[in-house]
Amino acid sequence: MVNFATGNAFQDGDFPRSGVVQRAYGIWDRPGLGAPAGRALPRGMDTLAPRSYTRNPDGVVTLTTTTDLNWRLHDGWYFNFPGTAEAVLSDPISTAGVLSFLTIRPRDTTVSECSLNHKAALYTVNPVSGKVDRPAQGSIMVLSTKTPIAAKDIDAQKVSVVSDMTPKPFLPPGSNLPAPCKPGQHAKRVITGGARRSFCASAAVDHSDCNGGKSPA
Fold first, then answer.
1. What is d(CA 88, CA 82) in angstroms, rounded to the nearest whole number?
2. Torsion angles phi and psi, residue 24, rounded to 5
3. Are the CB atoms for 137 and 199 separated by under 8 Å?
4. Which residues of the chain have pLDDT under 50?
5. Is 215 within a domain?
6. What confidence score (pLDDT) does residue 211 get?
7. Number of domains in the chain
8. What is the pTM of this model?
9. Strands 119-125 and 98-105, how do they pair?
10. Which residues contact residue 143 at a Cβ distance below 8 angstroms, ignoring those fewer than 6 apart?
């Protein structure tokens, strides 16, 4: 899978750009893609399965609608960022079966590109399906349904994701430490100058959304 997201802030006027829709993508670079006798290279959005995400007033982002990903028909997935002028300005990271990336969005339309007052959100989605299929950042109730969180606001505009080697064999009652990860999972820590966040992720990639054709290895 080739995963990437859009956005830039290299020149005056690059960010924020309220009139441009920024997106995240996942494309299967399947064998023979673009070869004379192989599958044509994806162009445009017609062969990509859309996902739709919504941000609530607390800054929490959840998946609202999705299209089944059929690899006979689709080359991958995409979704639009739910915020106005929301964009990715640093490299996404795929580790332990989770694609994580940070988006930046202005607090209002009058904020300049050099402001330190932008809002940032950490996304954690499945790199193969483009959905959020495990509660790496917890869950909330949406219309009486327990729904995993795709993104939360974070107090930083640049983060790193590293392996969390902190031993957590036992948590006493009332402890505020992160819960131990389940067997077969990896603990990951998001670190930055002003925020700390941990999440658990599986090393195995979930192909539950691949309902047709050969799925990515």
1. 12
2. -115, 145
3. yes
4. 169-172, 205-215, 217
5. no
6. 45
7. 1
8. 0.80
9. antiparallel
10. none
